[in-house]
Specification:
The protein is mostly beta strands. Helix content is 11%, strand content 38%. It has 1 helix and 12 strands. Strand 6 and strand 7 form a beta hairpin. The protein is globular.
Length: 206
């Protein structure tokens, strides 16, 4: 069972804004995340060292890709947040409260998938995300792909819209609650045989 990509407002990584890596159970950030694995069929010594040549070319390609990623980084934010385990629970999500979003740096401190009346499979996957709010701009550094993003936030009541300005131009919507020390995003997590899911990401100001 695969859950839809959320990357909150952030990469298919990320939930609304979060990036995550898949664990024993599928997570919302699974969908759309590049596989990143390839088989290596290098030849042996009897084949003129073709295996060594292939390995050398693969290393060169990886180095080039790494340099390209660094060059195309959307912001200078370091992902200093600790990794958290995504939890899946039966029940209803909290109601959004809206509020003023305070400037500052936040760490993802909890990510919960509410499964309504369906059976919850428990912990699954991990997430590690740091966000920085400056006015209407949100910079994101996450463990998913892409590793950095920059978005413009617009709020109305308890609704929030995030429009990517780097590296793409996607737009995401959710509801939210904000206090002086925390920011909570509440967004649809898709449906399956167990029913409708809701994802709640909690960010704590540092």
């Amino acid at each position: 069972m695969r859950m839809p990509c959320l990357v909150l407002f952030v990469p298919c990584a990320v939930f609304f804004a979060a990036g995550c890596s898949s664990g024993s159970a599928p997570t919302p950030a699974d969908a759309g995340t590049p596989d990143g694995h390839a088989g290596a069929d290098g030849g042996g010594a009897g084949e003129g060292g073709a295996g060594a040549d292939a390995a050398s070319e693969a290393t060169a390609s990886a180095d080039a890709a790494s340099s390209g990623d660094a060059a195309s980084s959307c912001n200078d934010l370091a992902n200093a947040a600790p990794a958290i385990t995504i939890q899946q629970v039966v029940g209803d999500p909290p109601a959004p409260q809206g509020g003023a979003i305070a400037d500052g740096t936040y760490w993802l401190t909890a990510a919960t998938i509410y499964t309504g009346e369906g059976d919850a499979p428990g912990p699954g996957g991990a997430g590690q995300t740091t966000i920085r709010i400056t006015g209407s701009t949100m910079d994101v550094a996450a463990s998913g792909t892409p590793p950095t993003r920059t978005l413009t936030l617009t709020t109305s009541g308890t609704s929030i819209t995030a429009a990517d300005t780097c590296p793409d131009t996607d737009t995401s919507q959710a509801t939210y609650s904000a206090t002086a020390t925390a920011l909570v995003f509440i967004l649809p997590g898709g449906t399956d045989d167990a029913g409708t899911r809701t994802v709640v990401e909690t960010y704590t100001k540092q």
